[in-house]
Amino acid sequence: MSLRILLADDHAMFRSGLKAVLSTQDDLCCVAEAADGRAAVEETIRLAPDVAILDIRMPRLDGLRAAERILGRPGNTTKVIVLTTYDDDSYVYSALRMGVSGFLLKSVPPEETIAAIRIAHRGDAIIDPSVTRRLISRFASGIAPPASSTEVERLTAREREVLILVAQAHSNTEIARALGIGDETVKTHVSRILAKLGLRDRTQAVIYAAAHQLVAPLPPLPPGSESRAAPRSRHRAL
Fold this sequence. Notes:
The chain is α/β, with parallel strands linked by helices. 44% of the residues lie in helices and 13% in strands. It is built from 10 helices and 7 strands. Helix 5 (110-121) links the parallel strand 5 (102-105) and strand 6.
């Protein structure tokens, strides 16, 4: 059964190109298009697509407000991916709180867009590593420490190891290989970590680990790299 996708962007040519990309995949189907955020919310309510892809900058209602309305509806099952540029990354932290499943640069190759849709649908989050780097450096210091200082201490030694590897953007398979355990065991550890720390998803776990100094700070990006698109194959499911 095909994954049902909604595309929302105020540029018709961009929507047309992305729709053409989706049409090349047997398991993906564009069921609706929207030229503004309000229409995206209305179509999502009407059709309940599996994944909604929203541009941040749209008329009537921007992509973040649209995502907030979609994700805040009781019983919502639609995953949301936000299209962004490096100029938009000041919105990332707010979007993480809403439960957005991913951030894509509009310049990413088609195969990465396709992969991101599948990753979001299965419940993982995807974010460009360069955006993660900027996110941590800009916002981690602003994350309030937990009310109880014992949250991290509640983690077992193995859970702490897994959290650190998650924060370093390793996949479940990579973590399993590094620790000599099975993929399902990794998934169990991740679920317990999120529950103990009160986090929604793996993306929030990355920010939490950085804010609580569980991982070394990331080095700054090279000069000029903030204005360039990320190279191919650097997107990773968190």
